[in-house]
Amino acid sequence: MIKPRTPPGVMELLPRDQIAFQRMLDTIRRNYERFGFLPVETPVFELSEVLLTKSGGETERQVYFAQSTGALAKAADGVTADGPGSSPGQALPELALRFDLTVPLARYVAEHEHELAFPFRRYQIQRVYRGERAQRGRFREFYQCDIDVVGKDALSIRFDAEILAVIHAVFSELGIGDFTVQLNNRKLMRGFFEGLGVADGARQMDVLREVDKLDKRGADYVRETLTGEGFGLSAATVDAILAFVAVRSSGHADALARLDALGQGSDTFNQGIAELREVLELIHALGVPESDYCLNLSIARGLDYYTGTVYETQLDGYPQIGSICSGGRYDDLA
Amino acid sequence: MIKPRTPPGVMELLPRDQIAFQRMLDTIRRNYERFGFLPVETPVFELSEVLLTKSGGETERQVYFAQSTGALAKAADGVTADGPGSSPGQALPELALRFDLTVPLARYVAEHEHELAFPFRRYQIQRVYRGERAQRGRFREFYQCDIDVVGKDALSIRFDAEILAVIHAVFSELGIGDFTVQLNNRKLMRGFFEGLGVADGARQMDVLREVDKLDKRGADYVRETLTGEGFGLSAATVDAILAFVAVRSSGHADALARLDALGQGSDTFNQGIAELREVLELIHALGVPESDYCLNLSIARGLDYYTGTVYETQLDGYPQIGSICSGGRYDDLA
């Protein structure tokens, strides 16, 4: 007798909760559509060679591969025939489950480019798959509710503001409590660090990781680490970093004033300020209440593929949950 | 350079078609909910040992298994270590993708039995996965839109009629043309074949498969096969079978009259007639127009797990498509 149960790391709801969950997805979808985003659904599996082109590192190690009974038997035979010298990499299965909705979007746009109108606004609400080790709060299967605007050449900064207006509309209607969209711009952050002599992106991330320990370990610990061996920053540099990432605005005018107070720097730095100012003005014009957004110059989004505006959204009453909606502008994905 | 493309055997739509498709799914969902069916979603993968308990044969050969990068590497090592004598069956992966929504339903009901109210009406609209060989019209991934009523002990026959009323509501609102729900009852069919001395279900299916060639090969061919070696039925028996499976009603009164004309037989046969009559009366009472349903005593649904009412739905203008909505009553699934 096999006990009927779900695999670890998946969510399954009883009907009452499923109804509430479905209502939430419907609210998100309706708001996406209201702003003119078009629905896209992609297959759960992509060709492995396509899916894994753009990724790497941690993500790639968490991919699920799918093999039919027949393919599995063949693969097993193949590995056996190749003997102990064969590497699993050689026999990479044909199909892999999507681990996010961004790589499928890049493939979709590249494949259907001539049949789409640009800027292409799409939304996609589907489940994604991660080969996580089973642990509390980590899911192997979960929904993502993505919106993206894909430009062909230059993409106006007004789309950055539009996305923030969509986020505001969604969370307002969901009614899950007060929230704040926290804004930053990678150009501003990059320009700032470069001005301090920290030009390497990975190194910037290392510094930010230490700064992130402020709450838990205190300012003295962080200062000691960053001025110590391994980092070797000057005390003045560390002070400048701590002051920079501590910037939070309260209200619209305050946000603009804080940008002014940053002064001027490299072209990159100045461009980051200009973009942030424009996004702030635009979301204000779009009617997003100033209590629902702020500058937060510590937002880094992992410094990976984002190139401009970045944001995270926090529930005011539950900061410990972390960001419940994040993203940013990126170039050259495909 | 990897060419961006989807795997063979999956559907991917451009936004305009996706909108139409989404509208269709919404119509189906709204009608399911209007009849009091509750939403259920299950994870895309089930534990292999749970998923494959109830299945077998062709279906089991078409299952997709999912393995994370790590599990795959381990499995490859394992097979290599076991040497050429190891069977793929020993190393069955932990997770398998659902190949229908019925086995997950059985698992869901068994797992959550004490938290559900019976009769439990659920709908489930999700994709399923089949390791099909790529060929025209065969999909590796496709949507199923299931409704089921799960009883705890006896389940009133009125639910058979209710399901047919839901089908009628859905296809009427979809507006994809005239359609006919074709009804039969496995008890009637079983009783009829038993009365002719063909008691074995698999043999009944063999006979029906030959009868199914009527259109293409003609009556003489079918008669010759069924009276010839291998089947060895008498000419009178074959005539009776051909007359039975040819029964189609036109209109409600005609359907009842044709049931009367079948006379009486074994208990099973008579029970099949009684159930069909009750379902006909009930759907009539539920306001389903009599032009939209009929008796079709050739409907067999593969003679697998169905035990009572069975039905198929055809688009009147496109009979070559075959059934676009099928099902029936079954007992003892879990």
Commentary on this structure:
Two copies of one chain form a homodimer. The first copy, chain A, has 334 residues and is of the alpha+beta class. Chain A has helices at 15-34, 48-51, 57-61, 69-82, 102-112, 158-174, 186-195, 201-211, 214-217, 219-227, 235-245, 252-261, 267-285, and strands spanning 38-39, 45-47, 64-68, 95-97, 120-129, 141-150, 179-185, 293-295, 306-315, 326-330. In chain A, the strands form three sheets. Chain A has a four-stranded mixed β-sheet with strand order 8-7-9-10. In chain A, strands 1-5-6 form a three-stranded mixed β-sheet, covered by helices on one side. Chain A is globular and about 65 Å long. Chain A starts with 14 loop residues before the first helix and ends with a strand. Chains A and B meet through helix 1, strand 1, strand 2, strand 3 and helix 4 of A and helix 1, strand 1, strand 2, strand 3 and helix 4 of B. Strand 3 (64-68) of chain A pairs antiparallel with strand 3 (64-68) of chain B.
Please render the helix and strand layout as text.
Two copies of one chain form a homodimer.
Chain A: H1 15-34, E1 38-39, E2 45-47, H2 48-51, H3 57-61, E3 64-68, H4 69-82, E4 95-97, H5 102-112, E5 120-129, E6 141-150, H6 158-174, E7 179-185, H7 186-195, H8 201-211, H9 214-217, H10 219-227, H11 235-245, H12 252-261, H13 267-285, E8 293-295, E9 306-315, E10 326-330
Parallel strand pairs in A: 1-5, 7-8
Antiparallel strand pairs in A: 2-4, 3-4, 5-6, 7-9, 9-10
Strand residue percentage of chain A: 15-25%
* Biggest sheet layout of chain A: 4 strands, mixed
Number of strands of chain A: 10
Helix content of chain A: 40-55%
CATH architecture descriptor text of the largest domain in chain A? 2-Layer Sandwich
Mean pLDDT of chain A: 89
